[in-house]
Amino acid sequence: MCDRILADGHTVVGADNFLTGHRRNLAHLADHPRFTFLELDVCRPLPDAGAFDCVIHAASPASPKDYAAHPIATLDVGSAGSRNLLELALASRARYLLTSTSECYGDPLEHPQTESYWGNVNPVGPRSCYDESKRFAEAMTMAYHRHYGLRTNIARIFNTYGPRM
Ligand SMILES: NC(=O)c1ccc[n+]([C@@H]2O[C@H](COP(=O)([O-])OP(=O)(O)OC[C@H]3O[C@@H](n4cnc5c(N)ncnc54)[C@H](O)[C@@H]3O)[C@@H](O)[C@H]2O)c1
DSSP string spanning the chain? Predict the structure, then answer.
């Protein structure tokens, strides 16, 4: 995603705490003139990194193995992390994008799922840390949209992979 945004001519400030990611995935951007990297946990207070046109919240353990290993960090990044990044977007009146998931539908009773389907979700099941984190993150995103008029988008991604994954 970062590579594509840079290729479109934009400037990017990226952040990751490497909970489940790897520094080597950024090696090709080390000398890029329009890329700055901050090693940080988005659940913690964020440094002043200037104004933004767009804030993308893509931080989260994403695979079942990863969120099973980090259930509390997974809930934190969807809740506290979402709040921090929404505040960052609000400060600049930036557009905000949340990368959500097909797991929002839980164990769906409809196939294929449409956006009007609300899901069949178990809040105490083994995947609940991920499903509920993303559902909360979606609810928080809509609250900022409705309450502050923030321009928000939610992308429910279904199993997707790309370079270095
Ligand atoms: N790839 C898919 O099929 C898919 C499907 C549905 C949703 N998503 C969502 O899209 C986003 C990106 O997924 P991905 O597949 O590129 O995963 P990824 O594991 O490549 O990237 C997620 C990154 O978030 C980082 N991270 C985790 N907690 C953090 C925190 N508190 N602070 C800062 N960084 C943190 C990890 O270290 C990792 O590098 C995730 O939010 C994921 O839940 C992906």
Answer: -HHHHHHTT--EEEEE--SSS-GGGGGGGTT-TTEEEEE--TTSPPP-----SEEEE--S--SHHHHHH-HHHHHHHHHHHHHHHHHHHHHHT-EEEEEEEGGGGBS-SSSS--TT---B--TTSTTHHHHHHHHHHHHHHHHHHHHH---EEEEEE-S---TT-
